Amino acid sequence: MSEENKDFGDKAEDAAKDFKEDVKKTFDPQNPDNGKTVAIIAHITVIGWIVALIMNSQNKSEFGSYYIRQTLGIWILGFILGIIPVVGCFAFIICVVLIIISLVNAANDKMVPIVGLGEYFQDWFKSL
Predict the structure, then answer these.
(1) Residue 8 covered by a domain
(2) Which end of the chain, N or C, is more open, meaning fewer C-beta atoms within 10 Å of its C-beta?
(3) Is residue 78 part of a domain?
(4) Count of C-beta atoms within a 10 Å radius of residue 114
């Protein structure tokens, strides 16, 4: 094996070790940023919401739970608005705007409810 291949292999191995340590730190239940990570992941499609729910169930954080409830409420609101014939055309746009606003608040460590229904979502889904 040439010296160049050994260097490449060593660099790849070091990068893999660094990545593994970063993953452990990011998803560590004792990490204070874990709630923020859960909150942000919850906004990334329904699959992201499910992943965030599973992550939060292992180590509940108030911040992560807050945004799991908010995002679930937005998804349900979008589904209900999508059924209504005239409003259904705009339901997607409304939900995308609400998700973006909620995501920005989560990224800035602010627990701000969405306009109108945010407080209701917190009450309705308090078991999450």
Answers:
(1) no
(2) N
(3) yes
(4) 20
pTM for this predicted structure: 0.68
Residue matched to tokens 């923020």:
36
| Between 30 and 74, the higher pLDDT residue | 74
Identify the domain containing residue 68 by its residue range.
32-124
Q: In this predicted model, what pLDDT tens digit does every residue of 63-72 receive, in sequence order? A: 888 888 899 8
- Percent above pLDDT 70 for the chain: 82
Amino acid at 11: K
DSSP string, 57-90: HHS--HHHHHHHHHHHHHHHHHHHHHHSTTTHHH
| HEC-encoded secondary structure of 86-119 | CCHHHHHHHHHHHHHHHHHHHHCCCCCCCCCCHH
Q: List all residues 6 or more positions away from 36 whose beta carbon is below 8 Å from its beta carbon.
A: 63, 64, 106, 107, 109
Please, what is the angle between helix 88-107 and helix 34-42, to 10°? 170
- Per-residue pLDDT tens over the stretch 101-126: 989 988 888 888 888 887 777 778 77
Q: Is residue 47 part of a domain?
A: yes
